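New to this. Please check this fold:
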Amino acid sequence: MAATIKDIAKRVGVNPSTVSRVINGTAAISEETKKKIMTAMKELDYHPNIQARSLVNGSAFTIGLVMDAGNSDAYANTFFINSVSAIEKVTQRLGYNLLIANNTEREEGNAVKNLVLEHKIDGVILPVSGITEDLVTLLQENNFPFVVMGEPDETYFGQNWVDMDNEEGARLAVGHLLQRGYRHPVLLIENKGNIFEKKRIQGFIAELEHNGLSPAPGDIIESRANGEDIADKVKLVLENQSEVDSVICTNNIVAYHVLRELKKRGISVPEQMGIITFNNYPLAEYLDPPLTAVDIDTYLLGEWAASTLFDMIKHRDRKEGAILIETKMIARKSTEKRW
C-alpha cells in the first residue's frame, strides 16, 4: 500500500497538517523539521497526489521547458542536457513535474499556447533560442511566469532572464594570460552574431584596454565549427601575426582543433603558445596538455533558471531582474608559460 501523509507524520512525530504544509510550501516550517519530513518521504517512497493538490491549490504543479522538437542539435548538446538535469532536480525537490513542450506550430495549434491558456502548467523556462515574438506576447499578456535561459539580444526588452557572465569570463581569460606572461592573445569564436559571443568580444577588448593594450584588427577571429576551417584560421594567424602568443577559444571543440594544429606545426603549448577554452566540460582536463578553462557552469545556470521561475510563481507581483552568474578560471598546464 502506498504511503500517506499520515504515515509520514507518524514517522516524524508531527501533525499531518505540518507534512501537508511542507509538501505544499504554504507556511514557514523550520529547516530541521522540513529535512526530517523530506527524509521520511524518501524512506517511505511517498509520492504526492498531484491531481488532488491541484484541486486544493489551484496549481498544476507542473512547469514547462520550451523546446523546438525539430532542432535535433539541442537535444544532443551536452550543455543543454546539464541545464535540464538541474531544472529537473529543482522541480522534483519542490514537488512539481517538468514538461518539455514543443513550440513548433502545428495544424491543431501551438502546444505551448494551449498549455498556458488551459492552465496545465504554472510557469515556463524558455531557452533564448526559443524566443519568438508571439510566444513572449502571449506570456506577457496573460501575466504568466516565465524565465529566459540565456541573455536575449537587443530586440527583447524584458528583464526576466538568467545567463552566465560571458563578458566577465573573457576578461578573466585575458587577465589570466597577461598575468602568466603572455602579451598578445587572440580570441577565436564561431559566430559574431551570437549574443554570448558579442559579450566575450566586449570583455576581451575591455580587459586588453584596461591593461594598456590595443587589440589589432586580426585579434578577433571568426571560424566555422569544423576542424578544417579552424586549422586554416590558425595557419593565417601564425603566418600573418607572428607576435601572437596565446589563443582564447570559444569552446572545447575549437580548442581541440587549435591544439592539434599547433602540434602539427611543432609549436609547443604552453611554452610558445598558451591556450584557454571557454567551458571546462567535457574535454578540457583530458587534452594534452590539460587546458585552462573559463568554467561555464551550465548545471548552475539550470538551477538558477528554475529557482528564479519558482520564485516568480510564488510571488506573482514580483518582477525579476536580469541575473548574470559569475564565471571562474580553472588554471591548468596549457597556460603555464616558462618565463
